[in-house]
Design goal:
6% of the residues lie in helices and 64% in strands. It is mainly beta. The chain has two domains: 154 residues, no CATH class; 118 residues, no CATH class. The protein has a 26-stranded mixed sheet that branches.
Amino acid sequence: MKTMLSTIAASLTLACASNFALAQVTASTTQTGTGNEAYTEQRTVEYASAVTIQNGNNNMAGDPATMTGGIKQIDSHDVYARITQTGDGNTASIWQNGVALGGSAITQIGSNNTATARQNYTFMSAIDIYQEGTNNVATVNNSGATDPLTTTRQVGSDNTITVNTMNVGAAGPLIEQTGTDNTASLYQDNATFSGVVIQQTGTLNTASVSQTNTFLNGQATIMQTGTGNTAAASEQDGIANAWLVVQNGNDNMAAVIQSLSSSEATITQTGNNNNAAVTQTGIAGGPVATPNTAYITQIGDGFTASITQTGSNNHAGIFQH
């Protein structure tokens, strides 16, 4: 899975670099010191780049609370936005609206950083957030996008990632956290061909995913390595979606709730004192009810597993060793 994440991230970097190389309209801001603020807006431009670099403490590029972008790009195509901050207490925000073939990247090295990326009605545009340090917060809001690619990565402790996507077609968010006490939350509404990958390495991690009106999203995956992890996935009103939850460690809990037509759920736990539960409610897809399948595999002692299915032609399996 790490290889998959690295490959997609490399493709994102290459695409952003290509946009940057083609830039004919450029806006660049570099600040060194404390208490600085930066703002850049580009509207109806082509082959444009906007770059903000801040080295120091208490710098701000945009306001995540009001979704005001430190870099804002509107009604443009072939554009690239990048904010790089090194220091403590930094805030960064990028907003792209009506952008085609766009890329946005936020890199923060330090502690107490906050990053927000927002895209509305974009086509084949990417978001890449990377935070290294402690007490970082990353938020992604994506609405009305076609073929978006979102990668959010955190290295450190006490990090939080929240991703909200609505009316999105193709390509799904990738979330990677390495450290302790991390939390990842994802909400998808009306998403098609939009898978999910969450990978957490460390202890006391929590991953929560809620999906409504999702269709043909393939396999969504949560992978956790460590102790005290919790994974929860909920799906409603969709067709042909699948979930894979893999937990390696002790005291893990996993729950998958699906209320849709033709769904699949697989939970695999390796360790002690794990709990796993799958609840599926089938929805008739025509004259013949489409089957739901659920499998739980637990390796170790003291596990608890339960599968509840409502509907016809369902399949269930529990394997404990």
